[in-house]
Q: What sequence folds into this?
């Protein structure tokens, strides 16, 4: 007869979720979205304590995980230590961005806590999957990011999509390489920073102190996101 723990282990690897939990893969290929809380040495190998979506906790040894995830378990650091290792400067956006980002990993948006804070600029991309002009512009921004990305700047997507599935599909279809703010935090972000512009696509370029440098609007006139992208390119060459 299976124990309660064995039933949990058999069952939770069929779960999937969108949010803060990372997808972990077992050696038999089954996956689950779990939050790693702590790592300890037990019986000569690393053992992780994980939290499930319903709050229950389980422990898994590195030997029952896939090779890649076993390596992650070996290299895991507590959040406080990981944050201390981040050499990026503080910014006006840290409070809302920290712990609230997701990024495309394979075919899904996964929790992203490894952001290296930019030295000079944030460029916020206000966009949505249902927006035709956004669909047309986004490949240009992807190309720019892949060619020009450096420690000087980071792009953060601020979605106007109505649900997480649409946001995820948009990221996957366009192979977006930058982090996204979680959909649940978008309204708070908009209220706190009140960036200009009511239409999308809209790029908003700021320094790390939050000062506006350039947006897709000049007063009430919409000049488009390409001008902002080009302005950042000029700044990067100075």
A:
């Amino acid at each position: 007869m299976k124990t309660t723990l064995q039933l949990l282990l058999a069952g939770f690897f069929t779960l999937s979720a969108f949010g803060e939990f990372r997808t972990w893969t077992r050696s038999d290929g089954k996956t689950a979205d779990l939050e790693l809380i702590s790592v300890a040495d037990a019986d000569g190998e690393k053992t992780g304590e994980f939290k499930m979506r319903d709050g229950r906790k389980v422990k898994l040894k590195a030997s029952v995980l896939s090779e890649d995830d076993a390596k992650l378990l070996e290299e895991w650091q507590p959040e406080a230590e990981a944050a201390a290792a981040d050499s990026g400067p503080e910014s006006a956006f840290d409070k809302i961005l920290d712990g609230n980002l997701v990024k495309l990993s394979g075919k899904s948006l996964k929790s992203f806590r490894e952001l290296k804070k930019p030295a000079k600029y944030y460029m916020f991309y206000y966009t949505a999957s249902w927006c035709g002009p956004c669909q047309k512009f986004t490949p240009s921004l992807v190309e720019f990011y892949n060619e020009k990305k450096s420690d000087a700047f980071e792009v953060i997507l601020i979605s106007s999509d109505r649900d997480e599935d649409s946001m995820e599909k948009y990221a996957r279809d366009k192979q977006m390489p930058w982090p996204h703010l979680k959909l649940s935090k978008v309204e708070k972000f908009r209220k706190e920073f009140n960036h200009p512009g009511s239409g999308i696509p809209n790029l908003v370029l700021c320094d790390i102190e939050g000062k506006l440098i350039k947006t897709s609007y000049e007063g009430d006139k919409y000049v488009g996101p390409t001008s902002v992208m080009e302005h950042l390119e000029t700044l990067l060459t100075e």
Summary: Confidence is low (pLDDT under 50) at residues 1-19, 80-85. The chain has two domains: 4-76, 86-237. The two ends are 69 Å apart (CA to CA). DSSP finds eight helices and 13 strands in the chain.
